[in-house]
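Researcher: I'd like a structural prediction for the single chain below. Treat it as a standalone chain; there are no partners to consider.
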Amino acid sequence: MNYKHIPVLLNETIEGLNIKPNGIYVDATLGRGGHSSEVLKKLTTGRLFCFDQDKQAIEESVARLNEISKSFTLINDNFVNLKKDLNDLEIYEIDGIMFDLGVSSAQFDEPNRGFSYRFDAKLDMRMNLDSKVSAYDVVNTYSLSELTRVIREYGEEKFSYQIAKNIVKAREIKKIETTFELVDIIKSSLPNKVLSKVGHPAKQTFQAIRIEVNKELDVLKETLSDAIGMLKKNGRICVITFNSLEDRIVKNIFNEITKDSEGSRRIPTVSKHIEYRLINKKVITASEEEIIMNNRAKSAKLRILERI
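Model: Treating it as a single chain, here is the predicted structure.
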């Protein structure tokens, strides 16, 4: 489909990386190459390594990146394997890494991927189409208690039990196969006062199922730890999140490693315990101008950490 990718918080991320022309950089979430393109423009003898578990994203980014430079390597893998894959390429330290978390805009806008409640499609939601478990499996095989937990914890949905109960009830009659079938069940589970609010009533449940399918939060915790450990001195990590669950994980990990053993955040130059510092103590969000141009930037939050 005809699609124009608009990278979120682009200038803030590129500035936050503090790119060295001869440095080694990683884009853990290539998508359609919006952030990677700008990194490549700043490299001379350096190199960029780009990860994406979506083969289509890899294929669609090659031409765009080749127009700028050949100084990049594409890796079709989940970023949970980032450290191993880089080590296999004899890369053990990096000057910077960026994460643009969640589902790419292109994936949301492709009806057949089953991510969106705006299109009627087969329930899928897999970022990696080679993965065995899809949204169809979660919706049709998880127990009532498992579904309730997923929708409550990953969707922060107040009516998680009622939605899960109605999913189980509906699938006893026939399997739930499409996004619109699921949307109808969700709507039937919510009171009128919720249905009348601004925003789609299925948003939180769809988010929850997507996170479960792709194990997004578990993968994020593990990968952040690996990425932070690979940073060189003065190396930086930039993380863009789109929901409170992701942001909380990033915030907690960043805060934890920028405190000394006594739990206070000292001035980095005088502390012998701290190896990292926060570049932005206040989270960076999109400007009003960017939100007008790209509404998906509205929920974006950027946090930046540096090794010292």
